[in-house]
């Protein structure tokens, strides 16, 4: 829902938040999806990552519309510093999990904890600053490529921007353009391809370097070779920094090496384990894997 009629005081507080967090791109673009009833508690405290970033969903139920539940009594622990994958049929609520964690919406019942703090008890700014997302559709500003990466961290140096672009496998392409990093991406990024946009978004996230990294179908527009090379780079960064990362993926080959794979179905966890455990179990994951290595759209979710 596009909020053209959001109250001015809400916009005021949002702009304060934006200034404070030096123009956080995800916040800016996801404003469109923000439910204005999300409020910070008066005594909210800054999020403390005392356990390294463990995320826990406890009996969470949620639906965008009351008559259509999406998550049903979901219980889920995402261990700190690990690579987690969330897979499952289309429309089962994978992206919804991310939106709830960001508090774009509040849970209907149940609670979400990060390192034992209910996310409703922490400041929105500290919560959203700690999470970085490569969303399904990457928002770009009508600005230069360099600036679009730099929104991840406005204080980054040129060499940090280039290093992030290299790790996101986009530096060589940018360098081949006549204006290089000064190339304008055009209105809404029309001038560059879907795969280039995704890699710019990954560069931006790597530059932001948040404690939690979410990749929502982040490599879906890439060819297999580029996708593998990019995933290798991302994996090595995650390992090196022990970041908690969550990958929502349809192409299972991008996530089969995850420390934990969570299979969602009908709004709750159907199975979880490593790739090997899930294959041995011979359930839904194994069915998805033996199909076309994707989660086919025709598999019923609910
Ligand atoms: P996919 O794999 O196709 O990306 P997903 O598992 O990530 O799907 P979600 O995007 O979480 O699914 O959506 C779950 C369900 O909620 C879908 O049926 C979707 O149509 C519905 N939905 C998502 N956003 C909204 C919204 N803002 N208002 C109403 N319904 C919504």
Provide structural commentary.
The protein is an alpha/beta fold and 302 residues long. It contains eleven helices and ten strands. The chain has a six-stranded mixed beta sheet with strand order 6-7-8-3-9-10, with helices on both faces. Strand 4 and strand 5 form a beta hairpin. Helix 6 packs across helix 8. The two termini are 23 Å apart. The N terminus is likely disordered. The structure holds adenosine-5'-triphosphate (ATP). The site of adenosine-5'-triphosphate has 10 residues, from helix 3.
Briefly say what this structure is.
Helix content is 34%, strand content 18%. The protein is of the alpha/beta class and 302 residues long. It is globular and about 55 Å long.
Distance between the termini: 23 Å
Helix content: 25-40%
Counted beta strands? 10
The Cα radius of gyration reads 19 Å
Task: Decide which structural class fits the backbone.
Answer: alpha/beta
The ligands bound in this entry are: adenosine-5'-triphosphate
Q: What fraction strand?
A: 15-25%
The profile of the biggest β sheet is: 6 strands, mixed
Q: Order of strands in the sheet with the most strands?
A: 6-7-8-3-9-10
Give the oligomer, counting copies of the same chain as homo and different chains as hetero.
Answer: single chain
- H-E string: HHEEEHEEHEHHHHEHEEEHH
Shape: globular
The poorly predicted ranges are 1-6, 15-25
State mean pLDDT (0 to 100 scale): 84
| DSSP helical segment count | 11
């Amino acid at each position: 829902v596009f909020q053209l009629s959001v109250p001015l005081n809400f916009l005021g507080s949002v702009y304060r938040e934006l200034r404070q967090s030096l123009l956080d791109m995800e916040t800016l673009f996801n404003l469109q999806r923000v439910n204005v009833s999300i409020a910070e508690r008066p005594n909210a405290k800054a999020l403390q990552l005392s356990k390294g970033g463990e995320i826990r969903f406890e009996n969470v139920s949620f639906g965008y519309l009351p008559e259509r539940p999406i998550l049903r009594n979901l219980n889920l622990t995402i261990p700190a510093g690990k690579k987690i994958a969330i897979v499952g049929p289309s429309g089962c609520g994978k992206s919804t999990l991310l939106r709830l964690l960001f508090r774009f919406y509040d849970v209907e019942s149940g609670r979400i904890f990060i390192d034992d703090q209910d996310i409703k008890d922490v400041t929105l700014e500290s919560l959203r600053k700690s999470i970085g997302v490569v969303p399904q559709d990457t928002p770009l500003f009508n600005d230069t490529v360099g600036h679009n990466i730099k929104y991840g961290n406005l204080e980054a140096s040129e060499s940090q921007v280039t290093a992030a672009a290299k790790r996101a496998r986009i530096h060589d392409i940018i360098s081949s353009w006549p204006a290089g990093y000064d190339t304008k991406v055009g209105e809404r990024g029309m001038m560059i391809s879907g795969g280039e946009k995704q890699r710019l978004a990954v560069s931006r996230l790597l530059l932001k370097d948040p404690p939690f990294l979410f990749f929502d179908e982040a490599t879906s527009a890439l060819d297999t070779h580029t996708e593998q090379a990019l995933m290798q780079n991302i994996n090595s960064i995650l390992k090196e920094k022990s970041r908690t990362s969550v990958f929502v993926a349809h192409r299972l080959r991008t996530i089969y090496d995850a420390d934990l794979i969570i299979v969602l179905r009908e709004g709750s966890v159907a199975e979880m384990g490593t790739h090997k455990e899930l294959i041995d179990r011979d359930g839904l994951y194994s069915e998805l894997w033996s199909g076309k290595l994707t989660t086919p759209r025709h598999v019923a979710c609910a």
